[in-house]
């Protein structure tokens, strides 16, 4: 009987604004932060909707939020995401979120709660200019390229 040796290699791919591990869909470092915020969007009929949310984790390009009240936001819907002012003081908050409202896209809808049938949360892709990378992120990219 032949036994095959399995080796696992980790490949770091770098680009102008991204560093990620091959095989992983994560872009950037996620930080576990619980901050209050608000989502606003227009439904299919053009009616303005809003929901109060709490972040579970954030990065320079993504955020996962949990709604405080039932809200049904379709996948790929464009929303405006905004943190409350008290969250702007936290040094771990990405610079893009400190500016106020930021256009985002819902790219993943969390699993549904059995009791209500509503999603547990939403993953948002923050639509930020890739050229506006924070200084800490630039240092991180330089370290990744140097190694």
Can you characterise this structure?
- The longest helix has 12 residues, at 135-146.
- The strands form 2 sheets. The protein has a 6-stranded antiparallel beta barrel with strand order 4-5-6-9-8-7.
- The protein contains 2 helices and 9 strands, in the order βββββββαββα.
- The protein has 147 residues and is mainly β.
- The model is unreliable at 1-23 (pLDDT under 50).
- Radius of gyration equals 18 Å
**Strand content bin:** 25-35%
Uncertain segments of ≥5 residues (pLDDT<50)? 1-23
State the major sheet.
6 strands, antiparallel, barrel
Mean pLDDT: 77
In short:
The protein has two helices and nine strands. The chain has helices spanning 95-98, 135-146; strands at 12-14, 19-21, 31-32, 36-42, 48-58, 62-67, 78-83, 102-109, 122-126.
